Task: inverse folding
């Protein structure tokens, strides 16, 4: 029966899509890791040494504040350079699409046929799919890196607030107890 679902075919299509997604994700993850390795290491250390601990020394907080701001400094310019890859891959995809669209029209004319806009679009999309996927990979990678930068900036703000709060508490404690024995006899 033609109306019944072809489960084997559907499963095969879904498996093909899953394989393609895994491949694209691997490529994107490789790009992201190349740019964010140091930042990821610092954020993992912060998770282990600050977030997952009850008591954290001021020195540890200050060290991670410095490490994180330093990592952000270096990743900033790298991520902007990745934006160039995104822009160029987008231009490449557009150029390939436009050339394929024109090719479709020329081929039809040479064969004495007339193609529709939809036929030209379909031909152009099919012939520029790889370039479009490359652009998607760079675009996705760029967005992920920007997201990591945003998250790291939030962590910098959080660490800064914690350090400031501790300094204020220490200053208040010193002010509130001016006659505590501090070794002056």
Result:
């Amino acid at each position: 029966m033609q109306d019944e679902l072809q489960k084997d075919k559907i499963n095969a299509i879904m498996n093909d899509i899953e394989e393609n997604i895994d491949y694209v994700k691997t490529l994107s993850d490789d790009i992201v890791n190349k740019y964010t390795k140091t930042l990821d290491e610092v954020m993992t250390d912060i998770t282990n040494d600050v977030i997952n601990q009850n008591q954290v020394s001021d020195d540890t907080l200050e060290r991670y504040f410095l490490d994180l701001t330093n990592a952000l400094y270096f990743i900033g310019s790298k991520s902007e350079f990745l934006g160039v890859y995104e822009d160029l891959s987008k231009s490449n995809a557009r150029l390939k699409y436009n050339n394929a669209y024109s090719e479709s029209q020329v081929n039809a004319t040479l064969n004495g046929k007339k193609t529709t806009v939809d036929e030209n679009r379909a031909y152009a999309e099919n012939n520029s799919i790889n370039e479009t996927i490359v652009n998607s990979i760079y675009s996705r990678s760029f967005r992920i890196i920007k997201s990591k930068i945003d998250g790291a900036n939030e962590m910098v703000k959080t660490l800064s607030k914690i350090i400031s709060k501790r300094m204020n508490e220490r200053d208040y404690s010193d002010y509130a107890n001016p006659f505590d024995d501090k070794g002056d006899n």
Summary: The chain has one domain: 8-46+59-161.
